[in-house]
Amino acid sequence: RWQCTRQIGCTQLVAGPTNSISDVAGVRVGHVTLAEGDVQTGVTAIVPNADNLFASPLCAGAAVLNGFAKPMGLTQLDELGILQTPIMLTNTFSVGRVYTGLVRYMLEQAPEAGREQATINPLVLECNDGYLNDQQAFAVSETMVHDALAAANTSFERGSVGAGRGMSCFGLKGGIGTSSRYIHQLDATLGVLVLANFGRLSALRLDGMALSEWIEPCLTQPTAQRDAGSIIIVMAIDAPLSARQLKRIAKRAGAGLGRLGSYWGHGSGDIALAFSTASQPCHDVDDSHIEELLCASAEGCEFAVLDALLQATPVQGFRGHSRSTLSDVLDKLAAQHGLSH
Amino acid sequence: RWQCTRQIGCTQLVAGPTNSISDVAGVRVGHVTLAEGDVQTGVTAIVPNADNLFASPLCAGAAVLNGFAKPMGLTQLDELGILQTPIMLTNTFSVGRVYTGLVRYMLEQAPEAGREQATINPLVLECNDGYLNDQQAFAVSETMVHDALAAANTSFERGSVGAGRGMSCFGLKGGIGTSSRYIHQLDATLGVLVLANFGRLSALRLDGMALSEWIEPCLTQPTAQRDAGSIIIVMAIDAPLSARQLKRIAKRAGAGLGRLGSYWGHGSGDIALAFSTASQPCHDVDDSHIEELLCASAEGCEFAVLDALLQATPVQGFRGHSRSTLSDVLDKLAAQHGLSH
Amino acid sequence: RWQCTRQIGCTQLVAGPTNSISDVAGVRVGHVTLAEGDVQTGVTAIVPNADNLFASPLCAGAAVLNGFAKPMGLTQLDELGILQTPIMLTNTFSVGRVYTGLVRYMLEQAPEAGREQATINPLVLECNDGYLNDQQAFAVSETMVHDALAAANTSFERGSVGAGRGMSCFGLKGGIGTSSRYIHQLDATLGVLVLANFGRLSALRLDGMALSEWIEPCLTQPTAQRDAGSIIIVMAIDAPLSARQLKRIAKRAGAGLGRLGSYWGHGSGDIALAFSTASQPCHDVDDSHIEELLCASAEGCEFAVLDALLQATPVQGFRGHSRSTLSDVLDKLAAQHGLSH
Amino acid sequence: RWQCTRQIGCTQLVAGPTNSISDVAGVRVGHVTLAEGDVQTGVTAIVPNADNLFASPLCAGAAVLNGFAKPMGLTQLDELGILQTPIMLTNTFSVGRVYTGLVRYMLEQAPEAGREQATINPLVLECNDGYLNDQQAFAVSETMVHDALAAANTSFERGSVGAGRGMSCFGLKGGIGTSSRYIHQLDATLGVLVLANFGRLSALRLDGMALSEWIEPCLTQPTAQRDAGSIIIVMAIDAPLSARQLKRIAKRAGAGLGRLGSYWGHGSGDIALAFSTASQPCHDVDDSHIEELLCASAEGCEFAVLDALLQATPVQGFRGHSRSTLSDVLDKLAAQHGLSH
Q1: Where do the domains of chain C lie, and which CATH numbers do they carry?
Q2: What ipTM was assigned to the predicted interfaces of this complex?
Q3: Helix %, strand %, coil % of chain C (to 5)
Q4: Which of D66, D74, D75, D129 to mutate to test the interface with A (most CBs of A within 10 A)?
């Protein structure tokens, strides 16, 4: 029920038709999900609209809210302001394999890269799913990058899938979530996809309310108040923007996380990235015009996380660890209090 | 009533004895307030405990959440990680005068500064109070720096005083607010003082609720949805911390702003700064120990802004502009809905 | 003689017609010089071509090579990537006065700034001339900003003038220097102006040679090996470039300083800034096209410093301190070794 | 001959006993070199003195001089200021494999990493050796990380070995170089190791002289003026320093590169990193004490690059490409001009 209505929270801006990152025309998402015993992990690919990103990169900017993280590709993205590959998400220990797989994939489009042409800057972002998944199994292989990219579609699953398979969020099951916001003044859409794996339950706020004391008794396992989380926030925008402006927009994801109770905990590698699907060369619009995109960034991030929490299905994995879902918890609470719907 | 109880919002951490930045031992605050006709502005000084900051600087770190701002002193603070002067707050056009006044003040302690000794790095932060105050009057003089510093006390006024005199916040009257949080695990106190001048009313969330439609009819003047705001957040902490750690802590103010509905708007120069009153040399504690300070930073900032809103008194100034106070609005709403207390 | 030929160093790129920042069409420079007894200081204004920078700002980017400095305006320049005022240079203690003077000057063009319009971001950069000038005299007044701006011309003095009056460089007399480089491939000119006040004599390299043992005996006063210097490097470019690219270009000034033997000493606030006089909106060219501008930045900075050294005239000032000039030293060395020319 | 004397350039500071990074007690270097046909590449490991870096990390700081690069590990290093693994160098396309290999290696020391403990932040830095090496062969395997680490020794080869096997520098053969500087005032040693793969021949300056017109005719193959280079600079220091100070020191490598004629070209990913072998916790010394370390950083970097150029042996590789060595060129020039030695 909560999964269908996606009703928690009040929103000021309007969502796009599917309330998903694919509301930005051409953006597709694909998953490879591994779910066997101790291995509960995967790979998620976010593919912008471009045919050949190496030949025709997109403007992009990133913000490191908290750098306890192992991202690959941000140094060059920051220097040049461009996105040159699809964006891959996976678990921390698999960043190397996905890096290599993504280089190999790009060579199909750019056979002289690293030879007569420059090298490639693979963009790989990660969270630590070590509570539910045995990262030491190194279950992700280089070829799964191709599989995730081949699976990319404008319609895609959320919740406990792809890189989100083993993720936790506020002591509940986390994973992949998405949302979008349409900005009338600019006739522009901002789409968000998150890999949500952050937050202490005691800090969670839903609609501004601290509910951890209600939620905790409903959990199937006591939640360790570990701070070894992270969140990756990826935004696509169909307005022409410069790298500097995209960085400003990406950064506002942090305000959205704050609304959920997050304080960007010490161990949480919180990274946001935004790219523009409008064609190159990048150019600045007047910054006063991006005001509503800043607002959409914060709200879109907040609601993409809520989506991840609500779409998640329960997962049991490494060492018997499991995570309850927010949907189940809300059902339990509703039943306890005799709410019908 | 709301001013006494300071009740809005639910808090997870414990406040210090006075719920003020002066709960950090030795930290004092002083104001000069100008309130005549079109001139509604002032100067606020935050004085750390040290006797002579030039000779014995404190470790400090700052985070620029949004750089649409005219701070003085952050470049050197970022390079060297130290605070060498008291922190002065004022309106944007007065930064130059306060800079000069602060240099002159420091020369009393360091008569060879800029001669045989190095120069001084004056720390001056500002917000734009141009809605209620005529900045073009250049009413702040160099000598008011001495006056504000001379007035510094552990007990101090909040609301529409000092640099906060002409400030607006979420379309309401803003100004000076303060709070503190005590961290049991570290036996440490984090104190916050804000100069709150940011936010669109339509974005405001109190306890997670969007109340602008209720608030707007209660205002004495229609609020322009201008984004020309800003907020300065100053934190004092009595634990030994390095500049790098203080920067991490300061940055979390952004999460607290997010909880109030802010998305760090384009025109809002949002800057946070934290200093440690523990003695030099700076040294790192294990970063995992600062977790609760990150949490306190977000929450302390949120509640210092609420304090600014609740302590503010109405101000009428430049071109007849005025701002209503949140306290008055809440009283009106309570009366309308027949609430007694 | 050395002042005419400006011959030291071998250059790879071609200078513009006047080998000065004014080779970038429309860029003008003006000075106010104070030279009486203990007061040996001044103000220098660099005025881009635009009629009204507040209404029509230019793209700009800055690089902080070493942040032991008190610049005003860089935070907003970094956030928004625009230059909104002329660039003012002065001594460290006078930054406040020049800030106020520059705000006042801009109000003539923007009478509603800080009222119905946003505030102004005054760009004021400084070096510490405390060896030759008594900064505690506070001899620079707010109105000198107008005077320096009124004096701005495409033909201007270099050496011991304006803000350069009291500056020292490698234990010699420093000050204002300029240069330009023409990039054939882009049909673009990069002009540089420096306020040179950095470097230890023992580190100086001319044409790669360490000459301090030859130079030191020629000095009229033993040089204190103080590290309390700084250098400000301002670049104008007539090619359309984004703020990100201008920042990349500005940064390369650091390589030029390295060629002179500098290692960006601890106490030396080394800051470089570049702006584009091409019209707005900013837009990216392909970054591979800026290669020659990076080269020109390093070389232009190196030669602008050499120009400052060679154009400087001797100054005696505060506490009887004086600095010899490189020209005089080279004349002495040439005479000692029987060189004729 | 030039290899033995390492005589080019004049130095102001004193080298340590072996003029190598291993003059910092305990620092060791190991190589795996691949040299067959089109494959001319390898892996180099720099191992600090610590027994278990995961349990007892070292303070570290990094500076990105030019971010056209694919480093792994800098985001977390910047946030936390610590080095948690040995530092691995390799070619660009092999970063992923080396990442995975380094994670696996660290698991031997930290078997619960990524499970009950936090994950690992592998530090992997790269240059593009695509002119001499076929990166698309993906010849580096995960296990070579172990081999390079097992080979680490205080005595180690330089030049065309390890990650340096296929590197080019100023159109000549580049590779691994090292140097050290002893700072008497601090009784401290700063050691440098570079992976040198940067620079256009036309820009090269030796002892301040532009010699490209002399060198070019001596080359066995015409040099493409490609800018697809990079340099990695790693510094070890045995003084106690904070991460902030180590970052300041690392950054000065850029001044050293400038002295060689580099302007940190667009395509050159120039990254410097410094770590302290003194024990934790990090703490600040007074920054004025690091002046000589800044000087040593610039000079040490300059001479480590010269060492790489002088130690390099000729390599022929991918597509028949080859690079001459500076030693051979200098021999030829000496012979042409009848110099004997």
Answers
A1: 2-336 (3.60.70.12)
A2: 0.96
A3: 35, 25, 40
A4: D75
